[in-house]
Write a structure and sequence with these properties.
single chain, mainly beta, 38% strand
Length: 1563
C-alpha cells in the first residue's frame, strides 16, 4: 500500500525537490533538446498547465513515495553542451526587437523565453522564464495584430521561447521559437502556421509594415496584479494570496505547497469572501527564506503577485535573526556559532556577529562569550541560548549528548566542475536531526582522483548523506546511509556520485564509476519512430529517453543506477500537445542481473518485450565443455559489438578463433572439452590499427604465467543423483503443490562440495513452463497445473546444475485428477469485492475506541485519517448485500494489530493519522482490536462460507508500522529485522524505505522465516481462503517463494493475488508462473479503461486481446478500476475535463469492459453506487465511508432503483451465469471501433459463445448483419430485441450510454432447459440458546443446497421476550422463553429455543448427541450440543481436518472427502465434547444432459449441442448418433447439421450407457 509521507524529516522534504522539479516541467512545449529529457537540464522550465498529464503518473508511487534520485537534474553527461554554450557567450551585448503576429486574437499575449538551448533566465528578464506564462507583451500601436518587445542582454546566446495566451493547450500557445543571434542589433518577425504548427522567424519585415514603434521589455505580470502576496503581518505571520476563477479551479481545491507547509500535501487555501481570492496565513515560522508554489488539481503555479524566485519557485522572506542548533557533550566545552543569518524584508540575507546569554539558568552549564562549558552534573536533555544582534533576538538550541563521533566525508564525482571545495556541498541528517547544509573544507588527491572533504561532528551513529549543489537543489546525488556499528570515534567515509554505498576505505573509483544502462531495441512494422520514447520512473536517472539510430537499429539507452535489480517503463508516443498521446502496451519491467552493466532487450510493436540479449560473461561451463564469449560493453551500447577485425581466445596454451554471433551480439567459441582441474584463458583482440590481449573482466581470479596475465577457473564433477517429491500425491488444476528437490552427492576430486546453481522442472506436460525455476536457497517450489490437462500420472523432469555447469537429472511424479467443481468457482472466476474494512460498516460500536487511544473520529473536518468503526461484525451483517450483488470473494484490509500510542501529525489542523487501513502493523500475531474479536472473525469466515463466498485477507511482509523498530528488532536473537545503515538504500525498490516505514530485511533468511511463520499461521488457525499481498515489488523473491510454499503445504487450494505497482500482462514482474503469486492486480487495465471510455476503442481492444491470450488459470490478473491507493476512475474521468454526469455515464462503459474481461474482476467498495474520490492525503476522499442509504432499502434489500447499482447487479448476474466463457474464454473483435464509437467482441469457451456490445455514444446504435456462431441469441443485459436474418446474421440495438450502453448476447436455452428457481431442501439452526437479559446474538441459518434462491424470513414466538431482525439478529428483552423460527419461501424451516435469564451462568458440562458419525462424501447432518441448564456460555465448533469434514456454528457437519476428522464443541468456559466423523466415498451415479431438448433449424444451418456429464470427475466417453441422417447429421463433437425438411432425434450416450436426446426439426 502506498501510504502518504507523514514523518517530519526536513531532509526528506528537501529530497522532494526532485518531485517539485518534475512538476515544474509541465510546459507542453519545450526546447527541442528538452522535450524528452527535461530533467537533464539545470534550468527547468516551469509553467501552469490546465490539463492533467494523461497516462502513467509514476506507478511506483501506487505503492511508494518519492524515489531519491541517483543523478543530477543537470546530468553530468550533458555538461559538454553547457561548456559549448559558455564558449559562445561573448562580452559584447545584443539588442533584439521581437514582433509576434497574434493570429488567434488572444486578449493578452505572453512571452516565455530564456537564453540558450537550456532556456537560462536572462538578467533583468527573469520573470519571463520564472513566472507561470512569462511576461506580458504590449500591442504594437502602428501594426494591427502585432505585439512587440525588446531584449537587451550581455551575451550572444540564442533566445528560445514561445508565446501564449495566459493558458496552455491547442490554440492557446505557439510552438517553440528560436532567435539565432547573428548581430549586435537585430529585429525579427515571428508568425505561426496554425495548420502545420510551424513557427517562422524572419529578419524581413512583412509587407505593409509601419516602422517607428518603440518596443520595450515585456511587463512583469506581478506588477499587473491587484492582489498582494506575500503579505508580512505585524505579528510575524505571513499571508499568501492567489486569485483564480471558479472555471479554472473547477472542482479542485487550492493548496499552498512548499517550505512554509510541505511539498507533499501542502495546506488548503480558502476564499472566505467568495471574491475569487484564496488566502492562507502561516504562523510560528522562524525568520528565513521559504520557497513555495500554489497547486490545484495537477497544476503547480508560482505566485503571480510575487517577483522573487528561486529554483523556479516563488520565495517569501520572514525577516529577523535566524535560529540555529548545536550539540554539546557532557563534561566538555562547546562553541556557539559566531554568526547567524539576518533576513531582511526585501529578501537580502547577511551573516552578522551575535552575542549570547543563557535564556535561563541551566544546572551545570556556564557561558563565556560564545563558549559553553558543561560539567558532569548536567541533567537537561537540551536548553536554549539567546542570541542578540542590535534589536534582533533569536535562539540557538543546544542538545546535550553523552558522546559524539567525527565523520570525515569524502565525495568524488566524475565531473571536472566538482574539483573545488565550493563546487558542491553535503546535506547531512539523521534520526530526529533535521537536514543541514555542510560545506566542503578541503580537497585531497587520492590515487589520482580529486576528492572533496567535509567533517561532521555529531552524536548520531547512523547518518544520511546527500551531495548537492551548494546553492540550491538543481542537482543532487543519491542518498547514502551509514551506520557506525562499532561506535568508532573517528571515521572516514567515501562516497561516489551515483553510488548508494558508504565506503570506509578508499574504493576503486574506475570500477565503480562506470555507467549502467538498459538498452531497449524497438521494432515497429512501418519504421515510424517519430515521437516514440521510453518513460521510466524507477531507474534513478532521467525519466524520458528517445530512440537513436544505432548501426541500423532504433535503441533507447536508459541510464540506470548501479544498484538497480530491475526497472519499469512504458513505451509511449508523445506530441507537442500531449506527452501521453498513446502507449504501446502497458507497463513493462526489465530484470537486471547483478554485476551486469548493460542489459539489452528487444521490444516489438504490439507485443512488448519479446526477448533479452544474453548477459555479458567470459565463459560458461556445461556438462564437461566450456564456451567462451567476448563482448565490449561500450561497443554494445553503440550496437557495434562485432566491429573487430578478429577476436581469439587463448585456452590452456591453445589459440582458437572466435566467431561473431549476430543474433546474440557477441563473439563466441563454443564446446571445448574440459578436464578436471585448473584452466587458464585470455582474449586476443585485433582491430585495423592495433592488437591487444585482455583478461575476462567478469572473472576476478587471475594468474600470471610467463609474464602473461590470464583469467583462471576450475572444473570438477560430482557423482550425484537427483530426486523429487510432492507434498500432495494428487492434485487438480485448482490446486497448488510443493515439489521438494533432493540432491545426493559426494565431494569432487578437488575436494569441493556440490552447490546447486540452478534448479528447474519441466512442466510442459501439465501446461506449465519448460523451465520452472526453483530457488536454490529453498530447493522447493510451488507448481500449478493448467486447466485442460488430461487426468493421469505425470513424471516431471528435474534438472539441477552445479557450480561447474554439470547437470544432473531426476524426476518427480504427481497424479492429476479431474476437478469435481460442484457448486464451487475457480480462482480465475473470482468476483472480488475490496472493502476497506474500517470504512464499510460498523457492526459493533463497542470496539470503536478499542485501544483507548482516542483514534476513533468520524468528524469530516478532522477524522479523515482516524478509525470510523467498520469491523468484522459489520462485514458479517452485510454479507447478504454482497451475495445479492453477485460477489463471491470479499477482500478485506489487513487484520493484524495496528496499535499506535499517538497519531502522526499532519498539516491539516486537528487531523492525526492512524493505522485504520491496517497497513501499519505493530504485531503480526494479534488481531486489530478495532476490527473485533477472534470469535467475530471466525463468524465472518463461517458466514461467508455458508453463502458459498470466500474471504481474502490483505497481508504485508515488506514493512511494519511507524515507531515499531525497537519491537521488531527484539524478535530475533542477535540481529535486527529492520533495515538501517548501509542496508538501507534510499530509492532502491527492495532495500529502500517505503513512506519512511520500517523496512524488513526480507533477503535475510532468519527475517524471512519469521515473517513467513507469522503470516502463514493465520491460515493454519482460521479458514482463510486467499491472501491479497501488499507491495510485492519491495520484497525479496525468495521470500515470496518461501511464503507460497508454506501456504500451499497448509492448504493446496490457497491462492494469492499480488499488488505489484505497474503490473500487467506485458509486465508480469517474474512473480507469475514462478511459484510466487497466483495472480496480480492489473494496473494496466485501469489505464486502458480510462482510454476506452475516452474513445480509444481500437488500441484498447488490441490490448485486451493480447491480455486475454497471455493469462490462464495458473497466472491470471485482477482487473480493477479504482483502489485505496489512487484516484477513483470516475475522478480520473472528471479530471480529464468531463462533468460528473458525463463521468457517471462513461463509468458504465468501463464497468462493462471490466465485467466481461478474462480473469478476475475487482470491485472497489462504493463504486457500485457511484462513489469516488481522490488519493489526496490528508483528506483521502478515496477512502470514503460506504453510503448504505444508496445501497439498501429500509428492509435491507438491495436498492435496484439506483442506476449504477442496477448496472452492476445485471452485469454480475451475467458474469456469474456465464462465468467460464467470460473469465476463461478466448476474445476476438467482431465489429465497431474508434470511428463507430462502439465495440462488439466475442468471448468463446469450449462450445459456448457470448457477444458483448458496448456503446460510447449517448444515443442507441443499431448493428445489422452481425455474424455469430449458431442461432437463438438473446440479450442478457436489457432484453434488447435480437433479429436473426436468413443468412444467419443478427441485428441488435445497443442502448445509449446513459441507459447502460451494453448488450450481452448468448444463445437462449429451450423452454425445458430454462433455469428454475432452486428451493431449500433442508434448513438448520442451533437448537437452543441461553442469553442474559439485554444481550444480543446473531443467528445464521445453514441451508442446503447452498445455491438455493429462496428468501428467508425470521419470526419470534414471543416478541416481548426475544425479538429477531430480518437478518437473524436476536435480542433478549425480558426473562422467559421464546422460539425463533427461520423459514424458506417453500416452507422448509428450522427453530431455535431461546431462554432469557437474569444473569450469566457458566456451563458445568457440555455433551453431544453423537460420539461417532458416518457420512458419505457430500452428505451433511447436524450435531446437537447440550450444556448445563440456563448456562449462557458461547459455544464454538472446530474440525480437526477441514479437508475431510467441516462444521459450522450450527453444528452442521459436511463430508468433503474420504477420511476421518474429529469435531470438537467447546464452551467459552473451556468445557468440550468430541465426535469422530468418518467420511466414505459416495457411490458415483453418472448422468448426462444436453443443453437443448429441442431445436429448429433452417436447411443447411448448424448448431452444436453441449453434453454435460455429472459428476465432472467421471471418465466417460461420449458417442453421438442421429435417428435420421437424411434429415440431420451429428459429428463426434455434437455439431448438428440440418440436411432436409423433417425431424430427427440426436442421441448422446456415455460409455456406461446413460443417454440424453434432442429433437431436431428442419424447416
Amino acid at each position: 500500500m502506498r501510504n502518504q509521507r507523514i514523518l517530519k524529516k526536513a531532509a526528506k522534504k528537501t529530497i522532494s525537490w526532485l518531485l517539485i522539479l518534475g512538476m515544474m516541467v509541465t510546459l507542453p512545449q519545450l526546447p527541442v533538446d528538452m522535450v524528452y529529457a527535461a530533467e537533464t537540464n539545470e534550468a527547468v522550465i516551469e509553467a501552469e498547465t490546465e490539463t492533467e498529464e494523461a497516462g502513467l503518473q509514476d506507478t511506483e508511487a501506487t505503492e511508494t513515495e518519492l524515489q531519491d534520485t541517483e543523478t543530477e537534474t543537470a546530468a553530468v553527461e550533458e555538461e559538454e553542451a553547457s561548456e559549448e554554450a559558455e564558449n559562445k557567450a561573448a562580452a559584447t551585448s545584443t539588442n533584439v526587437t521581437i514582433h509576434f503576429k497574434n493570429e488567434n486574437n488572444w486578449d493578452k499575449v505572453y512571452a516565455k523565453f530564456g537564453a540558450g538551448d537550456s532556456w537560462d533566465a536572462i538578467a533583468n528578464y527573469e520573470y519571463c522564464k520564472s513566472t507561470a506564462f512569462g511576461g506580458v507583451v504590449n500591442a504594437n500601436s502602428k501594426n494591427t495584430g502585432w505585439y512587440s518587445f525588446k531584449v537587451v542582454k550581455s551575451d550572444t546566446l540564442d533566445i528560445n521561447g514561445l508565446f501564449n495566451s495566459g493558458a496552455w493547450g491547442t490554440g492557446k500557445q505557439t510552438e517553440n521559437f528560436k532567435v539565432e543571434i547573428t548581430d549586435d542589433t537585430m529585429e525579427v518577425w515571428i508568425t505561426e502556421d496554425w495548420t502545420t504548427k510551424t513557427v517562422k522567424v524572419s529578419s524581413t519585415a512583412p509587407s505593409g509594415w509601419v516602422a517607428g514603434e518603440t518596443a520595450t521589455a515585456p511587463v512583469d505580470p506581478a506588477t499587473l496584479s491587484s492582489v498582494k502576496s506575500p503579505v508580512l503581518n505585524a505579528d510575524g505571520s505571513v499571508t499568501l494570496n492567489y486569485e483564480i476563477s471558479a472555471d479554472k479551479l473547477g472542482t479542485s481545491k487550492l493548496y499552498l505547497m512548499g517550505n512554509l507547509t510541505d511539498w507533499d500535501t501542502g495546506a488548503e487555501m480558502t476564499d472566505e469572501d467568495n471574491d475569487g481570492v484564496y488566502s492562507i496565513t502561516i504562523t510560528d515560522k522562524a525568520p528565513g527564506t521559504y520557497e513555495y508554489k500554489f497547486k490545484y488539481g495537477e497544476n503547480w503555479v508560482t505566485d503571480p503577485a510575487n517577483t522573487k524566485f528561486s529554483n523556479g519557485n516563488s520565495v517569501a522572506t520572514i525577516p529577523g535573526l535566524g535560529e540555529d542548533g548545536i550539540e554539546a557533550v557532557i563534561g566538555e566545552k562547546a562553541a556557539l556559532p559566531e554568526t547567524l543569518k539576518l533576513y531582511a524584508a526585501d529578501g537580502t540575507v547577511s551573516d552578522v556577529a551575535v552575542s549570547y546569554s543563557l535564556s535561563s539558568a541551566v544546572e551545570g552549564v556556564t557561558l563565556s562569550g560564545n563558549e559553553l562549558t558543561l560539567s558532569d552534573a548536567v541533567t537537561a536533555a537540551s536548553f536554549e541560548v539567546t542570541a542578540a544582534y542590535q534589536s534582533y533576538t533569536s535562539k540557538v538550541t543546544v542538545s546535550v549528548v553523552a558522546e559524539q563521533y567525527q565523520y570525515h566525508i569524502y565525495y568524488y564525482a566524475d565531473n571536472p566542475d566538482r574539483v573545488t571545495a565550493d563546487s558542491a556541498a553535503l546535506w547531512l541528517y539523521g534520526k530526529n536531526v533535521d537536514g543541514a547544509l555542510h560545506n566542503f573544507t578541503d580537497v585531497e588527491e587520492i590515487d589520482g582522483y580529486t576528492w572533496l572533504k567535509a567533517t561532521w561532528t555529531t552524536s548520531l551513529s547512523e547518518i544520511s548523506i546527500i551531495a548537492r549543489n551548494p546553492v540550491d537543489w538543481s542537482w543532487q546525488a543519491a542518498t547514502v546511509n551509514y551506520k557506525n556499528t562499532q561506535k568508532a570515534k573517528d571515521v572516514n567515509i567515501y562516497i561516489i556520485h551515483g553510488d548508494t554505498k558508504a565506503y570506509t576505505e578508499v574504493p576503486n573509483v574506475a570500477e565503480l564509476n562506470q555507467k549502467h544502462y538498459v538498452l531497449v531495441e524497438y521494432k515497429r512494422a512501418n519504421n515510424d519512430y517519430d515521437g516514440w520514447n521510453i518513460y521510466t520512473w524507477d531507474n534513478g536517472y532521467d525519466d524520458t529517453y528517445t530512440f537513436e539510430d544505432c548501426n541500423g537499429s532504433k535503441i533507447a539507452a536508459v541510464r540506470v543506477a548501479a544498484s538497480k535489480e530491475n526497472i519499469s517503463f512504458c513505451m509511449r508516443h508523445s506530441t507537442a500537445e500531449n506527452a501521453w498521446e498513446s502507449k504501446d502496451g502497458g507497463d513493462y519491467m526489465v530484470t537486471i542481473t547483478p554485476g551486469q552493466r548493460i542489459t539489452k532487450v528487444l521490444f516489438e510493436e504490439g507485443k512488448g518485450i519479446v526477448s533479452y540479449y544474453p548477459d555479458n560473461m567470459g565463459y560458461e561451463m556445461k556438462d564437461g565443455k566450456v564456451s567462451f564469449y567476448y563482448r565490449d560493453d561500450e561497443k554494445f551500447i553503440e550496437n557495434k559489438a562485432g566491429d573487430y577485425t578478429s577476436v581469439k581466445v587463448v585456452f590452456d596454451d591453445k589459440t582458437y578463433d572466435m566467431a561473431y554471433n549476430t543474433a546474440e551480439q557477441r563473439w563466441e567459441k563454443t564446446g571445448l572439452d574440459l578436464t578436471e582441474g585448473k584452466h587458464h584463458y585470455c582474449y586476443q583482440i585485433k582491430t585495423e590499427t592495433e592488437e591487444t590481449t585482455v583478461t575476462d573482466s567478469f572473472n576476478t581470479e587471475k594468474e600470471t604465467v610467463n609474464g602473461q596475465e590470464y583469467s583462471v577457473f576450475e572444473y570438477y564433477r560430482f557423482d550425484a543423483s537427483v530426486a523429487g517429491a510432492f507434498s500432495q500425491s494428487t492434485m487438480d488444476y485448482a490446486d497448488n503443490n510443493v515439489l521438494k528437490v533432493n540432491v545426493t552427492a559426494g565431494q569432487s576430486a578437488g575436494g569441493s562440495t556440490l552447490k546447486a546453481a540452478d534448479v528447474s522442472v519441466d512442466l510442459t506436460a501439465v501446461g506449465g513452463p519448460a523451465q520452472f525455476k526453483i530457488k536454490p536457497e529453498l530447493m522447493e517450489g510451488t507448481i500449478a497445473v493448467k486447466e485442460g490437462t488430461a487426468a493421469g500420472t505425470y513424471a516431471l523432469p528435474i534438472t539441477v546444475t552445479d557450480q561447474y555447469g554439470n547437470t544432473y537429472t531426476g524426476s518427480a511424479s504427481v497424479e492429476v485428477k479431474a476437478r469435481d467443481k460442484g457448486d464451487d468457482f475457480d480462482w480465475d472466476e473470482a468476483v472480488i469485492y475490496f472493502a476497506v474494512t474500517d470504512r464499510f460498516y460498523d457492526g459493533n460500536t463497542a470496539n470503536n475506541d478499542a485501544y483507548g487511544a482516542g483514534d476513533y473520529n468520524t468528524d469530516p473536518a478532522t477524522g479523515s485519517l482516524s478509525y470510523h468503526g467498520g469491523d468484522f461484525a459489520g462485514l458479517t451483517d452485510k454479507l447478504d448485500y454482497l451475495s445479492q450483488l453477485g460477489v463471491n470473494t470479499i477482500w478485506i484490509t489487513p487484520i493484524v494489530a495496528n496499535e499506535m500510542k499517538a497519531g502522526l501529525d499532519t498539516d491539516l489542523a486537528g487531523t492525526l493519522s492512524y493505522g485504520y487501513h491496517g497497513y501499519w502493523a505493530s504485531n503480526f500475531t494479534a488481531l486489530n482490536k478495532h476490527l473485533g474479536t477472534e470469535e467475530e472473525f471466525k463468524t465472518l469466515l463461517d458466514s461467508a462460507h455458508a453463502r458459498g463466498m470466500k474471504v481474502m485477507v490483505d497481508v504485508v511482509l515488506n514493512h511494519a508500522g511507524y515507531n515499531t523498530e525497537d519491537y521488531f528488532n527484539s524478535q530475533l536473537q542477535g540481529k535486527d529485522m529492520i533495515r538501517s545503515g548501509e542496508n538501507l538504500i534510499e530509492g532502491d525498490t527492495r532495500k529502500g524505505p517505503l513512506s519512511e516505514l520500517p523496512d524488513f530485511m526480507t533477503e535475510d533468511e532468519d527475517v524471512r522465516n519469521l515473517l513467513v511463520e507469522w503470516q502463514s499461521s493465520w491460515v493454519s488457525k482460521y479458514d482463510i481462503d486467499y491472501y491479497r499481498v501488499d507491495t510485492v515489488k519491495h520484497v525479496d523473491d525468495v521470500t515470496w517463494a518461501a511464503f507460497k510454499n508454506a501456504l500451499t503445504k497448509i492448504d493446496p487450494d490457497f491462492k494469492m493475488i499480488g499488488e505489484y505497482a505497474g503490473a500487467g500482462y506485458g509486465s508480469d514482474t517474474g512473480t507469475l508462473r514462478s511459484g510466487e503469486m497466483d495472480s496480480l492486480l492489473d494496473f494496466d487495465f485501469n489505464d486502458q479503461a480510462l482510454a476506452f471510455v475516452k474513445g480509444n476503442i481500437d488500441s484498447v481492444e488490441n490490448f485486451m486481446e493480447n491480455r486475454n491470450a497471455a493469462i490462464d488459470n495458473t497466472a491470471t490478473l485482477g482487473a480493477f478500476t479504482s483502489s485505496h491507493d489512487e484516484d477513483g476512475l470516475m475522478q480520473k474521468i472528471i479530471d480529464e475535463g468531463y462533468t460528473e454526469e458525463q463521468a457517471y455515464r462513461m463509468f458504465y462503459a468501463a464497468t462493462s469492459l471490466q465485467m466481461t474481461a478474462k480473469g478476475q474482476v475487482v470491485i472497489y467498495y462504493g463504486e457500485e453506487i457511484g462513489q469516488y474520490g481522490k488519493d489526496n492525503y490528508p483528506y483521502q476522499t478515496n477512502r470514503y465511508d460506504f453510503d448504505w442509504s444508496k445501497a439498501q432499502l429500509a428492509d435491507g434489500s438491495i436498492n435496484t432503483g439506483d442506476a449504477m447499482l442496477s448496472h452492476y447487479k445485471k452485469l454480475l448476474a451475467i458474469r456469474n451465469e456465464y462465468s467460464e466463457v467470460l473469465a476463461k474464454g478466448d476474445r476476438v473483435k467482431v465489429a465497431g471501433g474508434d470511428t463507430d464509437k462502439y465495440l462488439v467482441f466475442k468471448k468463446s469457451y469450449q462450445d459456448q459463445n457470448v457477444y458483448v456490445g458496448i456503446n460510447l455514444k449517448d444515443e442507441p446504435v443499431t448493428i445489422s448483419g452481425l455474424s455469430v456462431a449458431g442461432s437463438g441469441y438473446e440479450d442478457l443485459y436489457g432484453n434488447a430485441e435480437v433479429t436473426e436474418a436468413a443468412d444467419g446474421t443478427v441485428s441488435v440495438t445497443i442502448p445509449a450510454l446513459s441507459a447502460g450502453g451494453t448488450v450481452v448476447l448468448a444463445q437462449q436455452t429451450s423452454e425445458d432447459d430454462t433455469v428454475k428457481e432452486i428451493h431449500a431442501k433442508k434448513v438448520y439452526l442451533t437448537p437452543s440458546l441461553c442469553l442474559k437479559k439485554g444481550a444480543t446474538a446473531k443467528l445464521q441459518a445453514t441451508v442446503f443446497p447452498k445455491n438455493m434462491t429462496d428468501e428467508l424470513s425470521w419470526s419470534s414466538s414471543n416478541k416481548k421476550v426475544v425479538s429477531v431482525s430480518k437478518t437473524g439478529k436476536v435480542k433478549a428483552l425480558k426473562t422467559g422463553k421464546a422460539t425463533i423460527t427461520v423459514k424458506a419461501a417453500n416452507g422448509k424451516k428450522a427453530t431455535c429455543k431461546v431462554t432469557v435469564v437474569k444473569k450469566n451462568k457458566k456451563a458445568a458440562s457440555i455433551k453431544l448427541n453423537k460420539k461417532k458419525l458416518t457420512l458419505k462424501k457430500g452428505g451433511y447432518t447436524q450435531l446437537k450440543a447440550t450444556v448445563t441448564k440456563n448456562a449462557t456460555d458461547k459455544i464454538t465448533w472446530k474440525s480437526s481436518n477441514k479437508k475431510v469434514a467441516t462444521v459450522d456454528k450450527n453444528g452442521v457437519v459436511t463430508g468433503l472427502k474420504k477420511g476421518t476428522a474429529t469435531i470438537t464443541v467447546k464452551t467459552s468456559g473451556g468445557k468440550k465434547a468430541t465426535c469422530k466423523v468418518t467420511v466414505k466415498a459416495a457411490k458415483q451415479t453418472v448422468k448426462v444432459k444436453l443443453n437443448k431438448k429441442k431445436v429448429t433449424l433452417a436447411k443447411g444451418k448448424t448448431v452444436t449441442l453441449k453434453a454435460t456429464v455429472t459428476p465432472s470427475s467421471a471418465n466417460e466417453k461420449l458417442t453421438w448418433s442421429s435417428s435420421n441422417k437424411k434429415v440431420a447429421t451429428v459429428s463426434k463433437k455434437g455439431k448438428v447439421k440440418a440436411i432436409k425438411k423433417g425431424t430427427a432425434t440426436i442421441t448422446v450416450k456415455t460409455s456406461s450407457g446413460k443417454k440424453a436426446t434432442c429433437k431436431v426439426t428442419v424447416k
